[in-house]
Amino acid sequence: MVIKIILVILFFAIMIGVGLYSRKQASSVDGFVLGGRRVGPWLTAFAYGTSYFSAVVFIGYAGQFGWKYGLSSTWIGIGNAVIGSLLAWLVLGKRTKQLTQHIDSRTMPDFFGIRFNSENLRIVASIIVFVFLIPYTAGVYKGISTLFEMGFSVPYEYCVIVMALLTAVYVILGGYKATAINDFIQGIVMIFGIVVVIAAVLASQGGLTEAFSKMAELPADGATEAASGGFGSLFGPDPWNLLGVVVLTSLGTWGLPQMVGKFYSITDNRAIRRGTIISTIFAFVIAGGCYFLGGFGRLFDSPAIYNADGKIAFDSIVPSMLETLSPALIALVVLLVLSASMSTLASLVLTSSSTMTLDLIYRDKKASRLEAPEGTIDDTVEGNIERRKVIVMRVLIVFFIAISLLIALNPPTFIAQLMGISWGALAGAFLAPFMLGLYWKGVTPAAVWACFIWGVGLTVVNMLTGNAIANPINCGAIAMVGGFPVVWIVSLFTPKPDRQHVNNMFKCFKKQ
Predict the structure, then answer these.
(1) Of 249, 250, 443, 482, which has the fewest beta carbons less than 10 angstroms from its beta carbon?
(2) Residue 183: which of 64, 43, 317 has the closest Cα?
(3) Alpha-carbon distance 115 to 392, whole Å?
């Protein structure tokens, strides 16, 4: 216990120290939200990866999908690395950086407002962001606190409150730059931790070969028609539902504002190329490792993973796998999940507060401001407005954390379902219009509205009808993929956007 406490206190001290170190760079809006758009490839790649993978993955997804699909759940990690990291950087990275810098966009709702020349799109997008980031944040709190409760025997409620307070402190102090630096430190802890933990868990089962043999001998799950041995096979007992999870967790990052926002802040194209490689390797190690570890969950079947009604408590599977480890390794696991979760929490609260501030409370008319004659904007007035915006963002960080904290204290469902609702609505609404808006001049404002209605509507209707359409995971995947034909078809039959406005947007892609 002494080792655990010392390591956690040291971890907390470093996080707050980074916040204090970065506070001078968080005095302006660009500094607080984007790190001045001068964040290098290593910090950006690690910020992307650590925002991607949190306790939701390590505790919620690895446990639930490892139990359902066995060792084939490793495909989810591979999909996260190839689709969610490599392809996302290749397809979105350069063009997002160029266009958002050209139009002076700081958030994803801001992008929709300027790109499609619609203040209403900007407002509605910001509301969607704020509402649907809350369940994701609650899921992260729940995952980290479940493990903390196991490692320290501290009540769940206390864990949630401490995590919320600490995250608020260093994000409020240092903004995005503090978050990026802490993400880098936390990413190193995650890489080291996942490798050591996998080795220790496999050793407890007699090594890799013996663990594989045990998985292959497991009988079929009563909920599936898989033959014996399915949990040790290449595609597992339920490949179609496994595909739905791969789509949701991999393609979803392309439409999440806290993920795409990382491309706004990176320095230049050369940094994007280097960041692509770093981010992909990081995802292979962390995501691949988490799901590979979770795939052995059935070898640790015990009364601890069942609720009083006899149903499996999926969020308890991974913690139960780790209970037999030495105190030093448990301390390392706690730091691993702390690192993964706090980086994600920081990214979520910063995204939400900046969106509410810049896209709802202060709605700058950027087009008119950029075209204003030189000398017509008072620098003193501008500076005062900038400072007020930063203050409002800091206040909203506290507000956002408080709301998500209330949900986390009374979580309505499993972690995986919380994330499915959040990612399904956000990526279902934003992915298609954002990506197509970067490449195709023909996307119309009406098509963007249609996709907003499609993504949010499908997710909400499914939730209110008790998952009548599909489970939250598959429903999220349907919302994301279905957004593309929605945007394409509606764009063909609705009034075209102003040609001159769009051409001005796309000028940046012709520059060297």
Answers:
(1) 482
(2) 43
(3) 25
Can you give 484-499 as a three-state secondary structure string?
Answer: HHHHHHHHHCCCCCCH
- Angle, in degrees to the nearest 10, between helices 257-265 and 415-439: 50
240: buried, middle or exposed (CB in 10 Å: 19+, 13-18, 0-12)?
A: exposed
- 10 Å CB burial of residue 243 (0-12, 13-18, 19+) is middle
Q: pTM score > 0.90 for this model?
A: no
CB 160 within 8 A of CB 338: no
Distance CA 172, CA 174 (A): 6
Mean per-residue pLDDT over the chain, rounded? 81
Please report, for the chain, the start and end positions of each structural domain, with discontinuous segments joined by +: 2-366+379-411
Q: Is 126 helix (H, G, I), strand (E, B) or coil?
A: helix
Question: Is the Cα dihedral 48, 86, 288, 208 positive or negative?
Answer: negative
CA dihedral 118, 122, 124, 127 (to 10 degrees): -170
Instruction: State the pLDDT at residue 167.
Output: 79
d(CA 265, CA 40): 9
pLDDT along the chain (512 residues), means of 10: 75 82 76 77 87 76 85 92 94 92 88 91 91 76 66 70 80 82 83 86 86 79 50 77 86 89 86 93 92 87 75 77 76 74 78 83 54 50 74 86 74 60 88 95 95 94 85 86 95 90 86 56
Distance of CA 440 to the CA centre of its chain: 26
Q: Which of 318, 334, 346 is nearest to 6 (CA)?
A: 334
Spatial CA neighbour of 401 closest among 342, 452, 457: 342
Question: Closest Cα partner for 118 from 458, 433, 486?
Answer: 433
139 within 8 A of 56, measured Cβ to Cβ: yes
CB 298 within 8 A of CB 62: no
Q: How confident is the model at residue 368, as a pLDDT?
A: 40
